[in-house]
Design brief:
single chain, alpha+beta, 4-stranded antiparallel β-sheet, 2 helices, about 40% strand
Amino acid sequence: MSDPLKKTYADYLGLGYQVVASYFADGHHFQVLQSNEDVVIAHMPHGKIMADGFLSDSDVQITRIMK
């Protein structure tokens, strides 16, 4: 899995990334996950959270990788 945007939220947590910040803006949830080398931003759809009360790994989109 060489493309970092194809890794899942669970993949990043399994690699030791930690959630260091969480934001809600304009109906969208974002989490910032950080490792020793880089930062990943995960986008979680608010409508899905409200409709089902939970998210599956496939509902979370990795949107940015920053070194």
